[in-house]
Amino acid sequence: MKDPWESAIREHLDREAERVDAHAMLGRVRRSSVPTHRRSWLRWVAGASAGALAASAAGILFFNPTSPPQLTAAEQIVREAQTAHAVATDRLYDLVTENEFPILRRFQIPPLSKTYRIWTRGDRFWIQTTGDGPQYSAGQDSEGRIWFALTRKRGLLFEPTEVGEPLTRMCELVSLRAVETLGEVLERFTMLRKDSGQPGEPIKIEARIRPNFLNRNPRFREIEIEIDPKTRLIQRASFRRTIEGEPAIRLTFTLIETQIQPDSVYELLGHLDADAEILDRKEPQRFDRRSRFRDEFLKRFSNRMK
Amino acid sequence: MSDAKLDDWIVATAPRAVAYARSLLRNEHDAEDIVQDCYTRLLAKAAVYDLPRDGMKLLYTAITNATINLNQRRRFTFRLIRSDDSAGEEQSEDPVDRTAVSPDQFAEANELSIAIGMALQKLPPQQRAAIELKSLGFSQNEIGEILGVSSNNAGVLVHRARGAMAEMLMTFRSEEAIR
User: Fold this and answer.
1) What is the reported pLDDT for A31?
2) Distance (Å, whole) CA A60 – CA A178
3) Does the beta-carbon distance from B7 to A104 stay under 8 Å?
4) CB-CB: which of A15, A25, A102 is closest to B109?
5) What is the DSSP string of A134-162?
6) Tens digit of pLDDT for each residue in B162-175?
7) Is residue B139's pLDDT more than 80?
8) In chain B, what residues touch A209 (CB-CB under 8 Å)?
9) CB A24 within 8 A of CB A194
10) Predicted pLDDT at B176
11) Which of B24, B43, B108 is the best residue to mutate to test the A interface, defined by the most A CB atoms within 10 Å of its own CB?
12) For the CA atoms of A146, A149, A154, A156, what is the dihedral angle to 10 degrees?
């Protein structure tokens, strides 16, 4: 009689095995395999002739549309994507942030998610909250200033020197910054193609940080990128951030459209009415109620980002 | 051996092989990479071996050796990284992915399966490999060959693993609970 623990372990392994895509593994193996069969030239010629005859008979001489295509290396694709994104065009992405703290998983609570719409152009971006919760816009302008439009009548503007590391990092995280991010992937990540390379299928690349001394504090540990096979633009990108070895947050960007936007959308003024109040840094500093509100806002927002 | 037969063999054996590697490594991506590498190396010798007939033992031997090697390299790297405590707020981390049980799995898998997964992770690597190989149907002799130990030692590893599992999973101890 079989030991009950062995049966239970077998069931556990079977359950794990169900999650494995065997055909994807086959594709990976076949792509990485170098034919090593030792055949004499005669056998090779005979085999090739027979193959050619069979192919002729089937009407698919020298071309088999179902044969696996030769895949371009992930590194090459990422380099091409970097070039494609170097053109500073306005792109709209849907951004979903999912808080994945282990305590949620421990109590079987699904990740807490928020959705945003984000326009990017190089280092500039502006983001708008969607769904439930407080609605506001925020962004970073051409001079690196970070702004918040709480309503059409009130905005906050912070100089790059005023904001601390948490808020700066948050801006880096949500603004995608494709060129820099892809450069980081090339330099510090191990990449693997996950698609089959069939025509029309998006190129899927998984990247994981190389576990070495220099990569102790990366912005992300794992990245999944889907790239348009024609334009080489990122269609979807999912970044997983971990803190202390535990998953913390996942950011997923999905490209919605590429469309030229006026410069003003990346500026605070573009999101306010003409008579709106702007709380910015004044020299010498004011010490009135509005100034205190501005300081308190920055403090609280920065604390949330820690 | 035709390519089609080898492909069938890979498709049939890959899921359990990846599950086994994943259990030894606790990292999905590394497990897949290792299994892919092992298949690739075996395919290079397809002319020598009859893989569908004899390949299982070779495959699991290759996977076991590769995972042990990787774990040893990791421990070394990990020690190097952890020796510096001046890291920022995100301290260097154990490269092992401790998130192997995803939220989806939590929702889908039953309680016993999760408990077994966790208990397996607490076993020493050789014991874990031994009991998993046993559950996959390998004989004591074969387990010994795969792990590079004598048949008797393989038996001891399985026995100890079984005892440790039973102790860790006291609440599921009765056979009825398992079934």
Assistant:
1) 74
2) 42
3) no
4) A15
5) ---EEEE-TTS-EEEEEETTEEEEE-TTT
6) 888 888 877 655 54
7) yes
8) none
9) yes
10) 46
11) B43
12) -10
CA nearest to A7, candidates B164, B177, B12: B177
In this prediction, the answer to ipTM > 0.85 reads no
Report which residue type is found at B29: H
CA distance to A122, A153, A178, A254, per residue, from A182 (Å):
13, 38, 6, 16
Report DSSP state, residue B49. S
A294 C-beta neighbours (distance < 10 Å), count: 20
pLDDT in tens, A179-223: 888 888 888 888 888 888 788 889 999 998 887 766 666 778 889
The pLDDT tens digits of the residues spanning A126-160 come to 999 887 777 889 999 988 899 999 889 989 999 88
From chain A, the residues in CB contact with B175 under 8 A are 4
Tell me the mean pLDDT in the region A257-265: 90
Q: For A43-60, write each residue's pLDDT tens digit.
A: 445 455 555 544 444 444
The overall pTM is greater than 0.95: no
The residue in chain B having the minimum alpha-carbon distance to the alpha carbon of residue A13 is B19
| Partners of residue A190 on adjacent β-strands | A208
Among A8, A23, A247, the residue with its CB nearest the CB of B178 is A8
Nearest CA in chain B to A30: B40
A-proximal residues of B, 72-131, CB under 8 Å: 74, 77, 80-81, 84, 87-95, 98-99, 101-103, 106-107, 109, 112-113, 116-117, 120, 131
Provide, as residue numbers in chain A, all residues whose Cβ is less than 8 Å from the Cβ of B92. 216-217
d(CA A116, CA A94): 6
